[in-house]
Amino acid sequence: MNRLVLFTLCSSLLPLKAAEEHPAGVPAAKALAMLVDGNDRYAAHRETHPDASLERRAELTKGQHPYAVVLGCADSRVPPELIFDAGLGDLFVIREAGNVVDDVVLGSVEYAVEHLGVKLVMVLGHEKCGAVTAAVNHTREAHISSIVKAIEPSVQATKKEPGDAVRNCVLANAKRVAGQIRNAPPILAHAVHEGTLKVVAADYDLATGRVTILE
Q: pTM for the whole thing?
């Protein structure tokens, strides 16, 4: 790459990095309460649809300071901004089928924690998850097999539990992924150890619209 072009690119990134490096962030307990309150409104169909104004959009051109990370499933029935009655710039959302974690997901969470000041990460599983169902049924279709492989430890951990196998695995998978994030070195594990980051697992009920904190 031409050195002038490289210098221009690097220079353009400096103001953004300086503006967003280590902001104070919303405390984890308050962030969790905001998520719970928003979900209560959604479940009761009393949404306020906050932070959706033109003014909010203009404000966000200067930078973002979301109050929580939500790692959720790509399932179309589980959009975090809706089920937590949140608006533009409120949530740092990462969505992958089965709410699984890999290096790209960990890097995304690290960015939110290290550069945007987020203090709370929620791993959100949900009822009747198709990715978990595929894992329980040992599906091996094309690239879906990579998702199945990521969920397989949760399948093995719950295969002897009584009741609905998919339901058991959904709950175990959310908890296990939350544990993976908590223990991911160097940034996330350190932040958890220092008490500056909280990671929780949760479950979403499709029929009621309610989120239950699992940990």
A: 0.89
